[in-house]
Amino acid sequence: MSLAYPTLNYRARLHHTYSAILTLRIEYARVRMTTSARAESGNFVVDMVCDVCRVEGFEVEKNAQTGDSPSYFVDILASRKKGKKVQRVAFECWEGTSQVEGREVEKFAARLKSLGIQSGIYVSPKGFGGNAEFMARKLGVELWDLAKLKERVENIKAPERHKVPGTLPVARAAASRILAHGLVNGTFLKLSSMPRLEFRPYFFSNFQIDDGRKKLVQGVVVFDGVDGRVCDAALFEGHVEDLPSTGFFVDCLEIESSTGSMPKLPPELEMKNTVTVAPSGVTEDMIRAKTKEIVSGRDEVTVTGVQLLHIPIVTVEMLAAGKSYRKILQAATGKMIWDDTQKCSLCDHKPRAICEVCGGTVCLEHERTCSSCRKHLCTDCVVTKGIVNKIPLCPTCKNA
User: Which of 99, 120, 211, 360 is the most exposed place for a label (fewest CB within 10 A)?
Assistant: First the structure.
């Protein structure tokens, strides 16, 4: 059986898990910044920079006041001991919709000087314009745009933690599969909350059927380790009727697993509420008995082995014009277990787009396009202008 992934040591695969989930986090912050002012955004950039600082060994303080005056503060003050000395780095985090100009960098540098802080980093996911880079080099301020922030996330090294058997990594394509998959205007869907990552136990029960003389059938049944329900099954040899196959989990057997630190991203990444490890609620003996029940009545059934894998499951809640959608991704292979966007809101056909007025999914038959602004619409939301040549318009363009 060929491996779907090249052989990697566990620390490297755990590092890929950090990258995939924090990519979703960065995308969520980027989306929120395009729709909200800084005061309403929830300080997502500040939170992400704190994540990076904590993993790199810093203690962080948000909105740190460093002088007697109320104006003497920085967005983040990160500190860590290096020998007998204490290293201090101040961060200014811009979450607005425009680029940061040189005059803002100059103001930040002047504030650092007055506070007696040697190292300063200006973070702006929207980038820097004008003479910002020139002023930063001149004044000794480091600049982080979105690419630089992602680079710092990529460099995070995961600490060794609890030992858990059979952990699988998050596929690199997980973020793209979740965010805007399969719809021509999928970016109209916005994350309404942080993605939730659960490492869930699954039992892979290998069985064979023989007639007492020779092997007739060989296969595997996959059980949810929390509640014991059947999730998938496959045959490697022979034929069995009505085997409960979904295709969601069997391919996980082709991925190298490892016993090591559970990729949990806890407390220093401030994601303890969105990353969990589900406890197993069934035993191997129960799985062996359930396997025989499923393939019972067929000569002699033997369970040849039971393997436990912890598989990453990512759940996201998304919004489009006030309408909510849920997606559940089996993130080890990138297979979608559940996707509310994959059925037209007006029929059972496969959707092509999101209606940008009501937020419903719409198939090719029920899709319309505003002839003025080119918004994608459904047949319920489109309005027409003219008596003979009825021109399709969205409500906004009809009233303009």
Answer: 211
Point out which residues pair with 362 in neighbouring strands: 353
DSSP 53: H
Q: Which pLDDT score is estimated for 346?
A: 94
Dist CA 270 CA 361 (whole Å) = 34
pLDDT of residue 141: 94
Per-residue confidence band for 276, with pLDDT thresholds at 50, 70 and 90: confident
What is the domain partition of the chain in residue ranges? 10-160, 164-337, 344-399
Please, are residues 90 and 115 in contact by the beta-carbon 8 Å criterion? yes
Residue 290 CB: number of other CB atoms within 10 A?
18
Model confidence pLDDT, tens digit, residues 340-387: 999 999 998 999 999 999 999 999 999 999 999 999 999 999 999 887
What residues have CB less than 8 Å from 196, skipping those under 6 apart? 274, 275, 276, 314, 315, 316
What distance in Å separates the CA atoms of residue 177 and residue 244, rounded to the nearest whole number? Answer: 25
User: H or E segment at 119?
Assistant: strand 119-123
Mean pLDDT score, 207-212: 83
Q: What CA–CA distance (Å, rounded) separates 329 from 200?
A: 12
May I ask the CATH class of domain 344-399? alpha beta
Class of the CATH domain delimited by 10-160: alpha beta
The SS3 call for residue 146 is helix
Q: Which two tokens stand for residue 83?
A: 């020998």
Burial class (CB in 10 A: 0-12, 13-18, 19+), 82: exposed
What angle, rounded to 10 degrees, do the helices at 44-55 and 10-35 form?
A: 160
Closest CA to 331 of 317, 316, 311: 311
Pair 310, 163: CB distance under 8 Å:
no
Global pTM?
Answer: 0.58
